[in-house]
Amino acid sequence: MNNHTVVYPGSPYPLGATWDGKGVNFALYADNATGVELCLFNTTADEVEAAKIKIRERSHQVWHCYIPDLKPGQLYGFRVHGPYEPQNGHRFNAKKLLIDPYAKAIAGTINWSDALFSYKMGDPEEDLSFSDVDSVPFIPKCVVIDQSFDWEGDRAPRIAYNESIIYETHVKGFTKLHPEIPEEIRGTYAGMAHPVTINYLKELGITAVELMPVHHFVADRHLVDRGLTNYWGYNTIGFFAPDARYAASGVLGEQVSEFKHLVKTLHKAGIEVILDVVYNHTGEGNHMGPTLSFRGIDNASYYRLTEDKRYYMDYTGTGNTLNAYLPNVLRLMMDSLRYWIQDMHVDGFRFDLASTLARELHEVNTLSAFFDIIYQDPVISQVKLIAEPWDIGEGGYQVGKFPPGWAEWNGKYRDCIRDYWRGADSMLGEFAERFTGSSDLYKNDYRSPTASINFVTAHDGFTLHDLVSYNDKHNEANLDDNRDGEDHNRSWNCGAEGPTDDEVVLALRRRQQRNFFATLLLSQGVPMIVAGDEQGRTQQGNNNCYCQDNEMSWVHWEHVDQDLMQFTRQLIALRKAHPAFCRRRWFQGQPIKGIGLEDIAWFLPDGSEMSDEHWSHDFAKSMAVFFNGKGLHASGPQGEQIVDDNFYIIFNAHYEPLEFCLPAQKYGHTWTKIIDTCDMQVQTGSEEYKAEQKINVDARSVVVLSHKLMH
Questions:
Q1: pLDDT single digits (tens) 341-389
Q2: 352: annotated active-site residue
Q3: CB-based contact 73:143 (threshold 8 Å)
Q4: CA distances from 87 to 83, 198, 299, 317, 384 (A)
Q5: With 43 labelled, which of 30, 154, 472, 502 sits at a CA distance of 20 to 30 A?
Q6: Which member of 388, 430, 598, 645 is catalytic?
Q7: Is 415 an annotated catalytic residue?
């Protein structure tokens, strides 16, 4: 290959590098650029391009060319010419090799060097100075891929939200320590697709894995310099490329096929794949950050700049914010989403800091262009769309305010359930709202209970084990003097901070974990479990493991709380077997025609129904709820009415045992105990009780009783 390579005009669409079997079309959006060069490389180690091709064709804002005879595996990047005027928002520097925003694969990771910055490091002019050092040796090359793949008739599972059990996990951390997975594929897409992994997820009862970011990302220099890394991956630089770090098979396009194999394998097991995606910012940081892609291609056409265009709007806490107000950025986001659905077959997305995407000029507007486009898109609108409904900007907390068709991580659910079980002063009324699907947040705009993604823990924060073992965060390993991470965790250590030999404390911690799981899996809405919580995984009190790519973050398969795991598995099976716990519609709280009973009723410990005044007592910690199995207001696939057993669920968050009187016979003449969180497992129904009989409920525990109906 040389500079005499044959070049045809090519096409401005599709963007990126596209192999058609005879050659490769290259297309790059760069509105303010004055020139673009395509650089071709023979190996990943090349420090100089084998060919530099000046792209002469420009259609509107897109630079394009076609080169015959190029094949998949070809390495490339761009150099983009234009003014270097940071004060005017322009940061062009043709000495910097740039990653194609539409690259389908990226061959490796950044090797940090001052050469990756467009300004001279240490210069008193800071980013207003200009660096003429070439960055080629330090930046990974893009890869032309062959998009063909044998999907073997793959079909999306299309599991309804109300039947979903979401499992948030990290591709590397989930299998890195698994002794039954071959060592060479641990921590990779292939390891995630291994039969041992798949069988575990199926036996647990998971219907969807929510993968923490797999878009190719940047490990921040300040972390790498301190011997840390960006483990979580919320620092995207390639919105189309599966990260090469998680590939066992290679980085020259093999990572794409390996990821597709993972999706195909999960689908065969009836498990959906949801991606945690970060479209709110990129890994290029603030005005002092590196020039890796977007900044050097056309800074002003990708980022939100302040009135002084040298600086970036930062709604994300990462230094920059992608400008979802601009058509080319919206197109990038939508093209990426469609690519992961159509080419990679994923089933949905969880949008990190989604409020950022809703910002028009400054205010959060959930009817912004981003949501309008998704709403009318025939591909994107049909998959699961989950918002993390906040960012760090003013007015960024938007729980309950996303449009119909969206589900949301319900942060209010997390906070309320944590407060209830740690014994904090909180109103029973809010607990009842959260347990029944948060109608106060979602009902008024025609959304259903499944708009609420319920969670007690997430990747960000304490694990469930640590939630009941620590009052305070212990983030010293992050080398930030324990200043990072959330200070207000709503956690309770049950009487001792961290590891202890006190059996009373340990027994209480085990029960509290069962209480959280029972509450989560019996709540209306969609439950989300964090990988390892069902095993009792600890992070030693670190509530911000974003930089810990080590055993602190990984799942420990040889240290599993088997009792807790069995309890969780049985709870999930119970939820799946009973539509009463996964309703598609709201409780109405009205008598059901022909029965005279409400679909739901709340009771005091003495067996009397709760009145309005009882909901506002912040000292009250105990109550019971009745679910009427004939009050589901739902039909099956053939229009048949769905009915279930009656259930009576008793919550006692009080620090002492309480006696509960079961309700009158009209609610059920005999009741069978099926769950008691004081025990290690879901019951088989050996204990039976009559209507109005008294039942002793231990301190800090949940008891579930069922009354079988003739269906």
A1: 999 999 999 999 888 887 765 676 665 788 889 999 999 999 999 999 8
A2: yes
A3: yes
A4: 11, 53, 12, 22, 41
A5: 30
A6: 388
A7: no
